[in-house]
TrEMBL record:
The lineage of its organism: Eukaryota, Metazoa, Ecdysozoa, Arthropoda, Hexapoda. Keywords: Fatty acid biosynthesis, Fatty acid metabolism, Iron, Lipid biosynthesis, Lipid metabolism, Membrane, Oxidoreductase, Transmembrane, Transmembrane helix. This is Fatty acid desaturase domain-containing protein. InterPro entries: Acyl-CoA_DS, FA_desaturase_dom. It comes from Euphydryas editha. The chain crosses the membrane at residues 64-82, 88-109, 208-230, 242-263. One of its GO terms (biological process) is unsaturated fatty acid biosynthetic process.
Length: 360
């Protein structure tokens, strides 16, 4: 039986918006699990063989040195802020940049490119690509590909940041160690099925010009603005507006892979590690509702309504002006069914998710 999809027109006072509510409850009725169902279709990898393999990762020294340097300079940046050395406007600018550029990760490389949970017009894709590049977190293609591998093989040896290897491995260790052969195998396999990414010219050009774009958007402009507009010193601007901002943003993103994969309740599926973590959601613009997200990764909201989720509000705002469209969301029936079946019993203190007007 095919998934049922229902287009619901949400009528607001000033605009109409279509959201496609999708119900795949039949899979639950059949006793199938979404994630294991996907894995079954992947017949070209023997995960058990890879799980049994003896593997000792090596340190990738250049990456380790970069991470250690970034974090040491960040400690110095925080010290400069605490002793009052840094101008107030610079601190406000850094804070605002962290949270504006963060949308390039949440609404951009995550919900749009990795999960295709909605579609975006060219101007919105360009805007999200620029914001994502400001965060400096590699190119869209590499990030989205790794994220797809993470979702498809969560908590297996093929998961790039497999949380079974511990908090620190999931947080940052995976970026400074050589990947497990199973991860490399799946990265190569998903490259073949992720042609949609490279078909997008925005993704292609951002990848092609990543280094000059990184230097311009993550270094030169953030360092230049505080110096030019309010006379911040080069040293302070470089340390706080480049290194500290960059490292803080990295750690917020890392927290989704570490904290939100270890700490929190599991209203939708108690058999997986991803959990509902309000603190991560607060820091990461709504990305900490990770139990929900791993159960319904194709839902543009990454959480039920009523949850703190700034990125969803932003996507909704772009939907109002027609820049975001084909928003996909799970039906309440499907969510409740899944919670009753697999949840840890904490489901219930959330609002109804459809079909209410989410824009009022
Ligand atoms: Zn995850
Ligand atoms: Zn995801």
């Amino acid at each position: 039986m095919a998934p049922t999809a229902q287009k619901v027109k949400l009528i607001g006072s000033e605009f109409d918006q279509d959201i496609e509510f999708i119900d795949k409850s039949h899979k639950l009725d059949d006793g199938e699990h979404d994630i294991s169902d996907e894995r079954k279709s992947e017949s070209n990898i023997d995960l058990a063989k890879y799980e049994a393999m003896k593997f000792t990762p090596r340190i990738r020294w250049p990456d380790l040195i970069v991470q250690v340097t970034l974090h040491l300079v960040t400690i110095y940046g925080i010290y400069l802020i605490l002793i009052g050395e840094v101008m107030f406007f610079t601190i406000v600018f850094v804070f605002a940049t962290i949270y504006t550029s963060g949308l390039g990760i949440t609404a951009g490389v995550h919900r749009l490119w990795s999960h295709r949970s909605y579609r975006a017009t060219l101007p919105l894709r360009i805007l999200l690509a620029i914001l994502f590049t400001v965060t400096g977190q590699r190119d869209i293609y590499t990030w989205a590909l790794d994220h797809r591998v993470h979702h498809k093989y969560t908590e297996t040896v093929a998961d790039p940041h497999d949380v079974r290897r511990g908090f620190w491995f999931a947080h940052v260790g995976w970026l400074v160690l050589t990947p497990h052969p199973a991860v490399e195998n799946r990265r190569a396999a998903l490259k073949k099925t992720s042609v949609d990414l490279i078909d997008d010219p925005v993704v292609r050009y951002q990848k092609l010009f990543f280094i000059p774009l990184f230097l311009l958007l993550n270094v030169l402009i953030p360092v230049g603005i505080p110096m030019y507009f309010w006379g911040e010193t080069l040293k302070n601007s470089f340390v706080v507006s480049f290194v500290t901002r960059f490292t803080v943003t990295l750690n917020i993103a890392f927290s989704v892979n570490s904290f939100a994969h270890l700490y929190g309740n599991k209203p939708y599926d108690r058999f997986i590690k991803p959990a509902e973590n309000p603190m991560v959601s607060l820091a990461a613009l709504g990305e900490g509702w990770h139990n929900y997200h791993h159960v319904f990764p194709w839902d543009y909201r990454t959480s039920e309504l009523g949850r703190l989720n700034f990125s969803t509000k932003v996507i909704d705002a772009f939907a109002r002006i027609g820049w975001a469209y084909d928003l996909k969301a799970a039906t309440t029936t499907m969510i409740v069914k899944r919670s009753n079946r697999n949840g840890d019993g904490t489901y219930g203190d959330v609002e109804q998710s459809e079909p209410v007007n989410i824009f009022k």
